[in-house]
Design goal:
Alpha-Beta Plaits, four-stranded parallel sheet, alpha/beta, Rossmann fold, Ubiquitin-like (UB roll), five-stranded mixed sheet
């Protein structure tokens, strides 16, 4: 089919939108709400206006290009004077109802609304409503993902990714007119179907309405405290994602420069979460073997993804007996930093502060779980997302491009295997576990160490692995994205799944595309494969590629833990889960209302 855009003939297929065809042929049309990566074309922002007509002398019809199909022989104009005027007016209306406190906004310097305002030609301050964004929800006290609806432009991207990509459906449109906002289903409650803190919505929000909880100030305070010994750890996915925040190509491994940055910030001990990933394989692999040999509920599900754990506890607590009790690598390393490391450095636990740099927003939620506290203090004190760590670096004048490469130098927990590195991508946990389980069962290494059946990118991948004469075939599954995870859970609970071991990562692609990773304007997860291949490259470059061959892991068990799943290992490295369907989170407004009511009833000193 053929049509004309700005006088040039274009070829297109039936059903393609005007915006899609324009982009394919090099025409630029500004937009704020559309996001093709998640098949989201709602036409709510009204910025992508174009004129279309059948003949040159016909009266043009103004339409939104993102959700209007191009028609045969149609004449389209994308940049007339009238269109420019209408786009400016529409953006002015958006700005008038927008809380323009840009200085403290999470998207400061990275705001798509301001980008569009510049494109359409807004050159000076415009009148705003008396209370822009007033009356809409502002919950900055949430443990993982904050909401500031005064900044919302109602693009509905967050609903699309939560509902269509993740299948969580925790967000709804509430109110009408100027009070219209995105709210949590069932208000602030956390029962089904509630938010699981995966943070995928923060990757697509064009403004600062949805953001990861900002803990950069807390981290900076700890680094400035002379009485604290600060231990920092960073996850495998961080080293292949952080560079994007500083203009480097996607997938560039900046591990050595991260170490330099942490030392420049004042961190006393730099550790690698990859080391703890090796430790998790030892514990979780032993747990799997125990269930295979001695009995226990199967399949065994992995437990290193906190958003997945939130999903189970708030929606399917009947699945809890099938969840591995092994803590996530972040929490294992936090526990060891305040025990094993502190003992060897002759430090009191109270002086050690652990800062984690994670690709995940749900890790913030995880670190606050009461079961992961010891004597009233958390094993991990502060969790920064990759984006927050980049901001902390900029706050201290550090540019990743100008930092030298440094090596880990801690003699206790500095080395990691290739198996620990691939934890950051979907299928990596399963592959790492199989490498070690095979060795335990057969007394020799797996010949083909790269398990290609586990390395596809489908949301659900199943394989039957030959573990030798001792165990025979083992049916496993790898799942990423909560929409696919929900389907797998349904199969397990219905008795239709005969897997022994299932890995689940809440975020599509796994940790490498977690909710705390660098975002890309007007795109959703465009760098997934580059980051993923970088982790596989790190694995291939490691001298040791199996967790059980990591010499520091062996030393840890010899000197401290004794053996996998020992009483001490169980105390420090394992935890339990439960039914959280009735759990409720309150906003500060609700808390203040209760305090006010109590004061009236009982008196100020009651």
């Amino acid at each position: 089919m053929r049509a004309h855009i700005d006088g040039r003939e274009v070829v297109f297929e039936d059903g393609q939108s005007i915006l899609e065809v324009a982009r394919n042929n090099g025409f630029f049309i500004p937009t704020l709400c559309e996001l093709a990566d998640i098949n989201h074309t709602p036409g709510t922002c009204r910025v992508c206006l174009v004129e279309m007509r059948r003949t040159p002398d016909a009266v043009p019809v103004v339409v939104t290009s993102c959700n209007t199909p191009l028609q045969e022989d149609m004449l389209v104009s994308t940049n007339s004077l009238e269109l420019r005027r209408m786009r400016r007016l529409q953006v002015e209306l958006l700005l008038a109802d927008h809380d323009q406190d840009c200085a403290s906004c999470s998207r400061h310097g990275d705001c798509e609304l301001l980008d569009v305002a510049r494109v359409v030609g807004i050159e000076r301050e415009r009148p705003v409503l008396e209370h822009p964004g007033g009356g809409r929800t502002r919950n900055l006290a949430a443990p993982a993902v904050t909401r500031d609806m005064g900044k919302c432009v109602r693009c509905l991207r967050c609903l699309a990714v939560c509902r269509n990509i993740q299948g969580v459906d925790a967000l709804v449109v509430a109110g009408e007119g100027l009070t219209c906002e995105i709210n949590l289903r069932d208000g602030q409650s956390r029962p089904e179907p509630g938010c699981v803190s995966c943070g995928q919505c923060t990757l697509v929000c064009p403004v600062g309405a949805l953001a990861a909880k900002d803990d950069t100030g807390r981290a900076a305070d700890m680094l400035a405290d002379p009485d604290s010994v600060v231990v920092a750890q960073f996850a495998p996915a961080v080293r292949v994602g952080l560079g994007e925040e500083f203009g480097l190509a996607p997938g560039v491994n900046v591990e050595g420069r991260i170490i330099s940055a942490l030392r420049a910030l004042g961190v006393d001990v730099v550790l690698d979460t990859n080391f703890a990933a090796d430790l998790v394989i030892m514990e979780e692999g032993t747990e799997l073997l125990g269930r295979l040999k001695q009995g226990g509920p199967l399949p065994l599900f992995t437990s290193c993804c906190p958003a997945w754990i939130n999903f189970v506890e708030t929606r399917h607590p009947e699945l809890v007996p099938r969840i591995s009790s092994t803590r996530s690598p972040q929490q294992c390393l936090g526990a060891l930093a305040k025990t094993y490391l502190a003992r060897n450095m002759t430090l009191e636990r109270e002086r050690v502060r652990v800062i984690s740099i994670m690709p995940c927003t749900a890790k913030k939620d995880e670190a606050r779980r009461p079961a992961l506290f010891t004597d009233g203090s958390p094993d991990v004190d502060v969790v920064l997302t990759t984006r927050e760590f980049a901001e902390l670096m900029r706050m201290h004048g550090l540019d990743l491009n100008n930092l030298p490469e440094s090596d880990f130098d801690n003699p206790l927990m500095g080395a990691y295997s290739g198996a620990g590195a691939i934890f950051g991508t979907t299928g990596g946990v399963m592959e790492a576990a199989v490498r070690t389980v095979y060795h335990v069962l057969n007394g020799r290494e797996l010949e083909n160490i790269e398990l290609t059946p586990l390395r596809g990118y489908e949301n659900v991948r199943e394989a039957v692995l030959d573990l030798g004469p001792e165990a025979g075939p083992l049916k496993v599954a790898v799942v990423h994205g909560l929409k696919a995870a929900a389907r797998m859970v349904g199969e397990v609970l219905a008795g239709r799944a005969d897997h022994a071991f299932i890995e689940v990562m809440a975020c599509p692609g796994g940790c490498m595309d977690g909710g705390g990773q660098p975002r890309v304007k007007r795109a959703y997860q465009p760098h997934a494969q580059a980051r993923r291949q970088a982790l596989f490259t790190i694995d291939r470059g490691c001298g040791v590629r199996q967790s059980h061959n990591n010499p520091l892991i062996r030393k840890l068990y010899e000197d401290f833990l004794e053996r996998p799943n020992s009483p001490l290992a169980h105390e420090l490295l394992h935890t339990g889960y439960g039914d959280r369907r009735q759990e409720r989170y309150y906003t500060m407004k609700e808390i203040w209302r209760e305090i006010t009511l109590a004061t009236r009833v009982h008196g100020r000193n009651g």
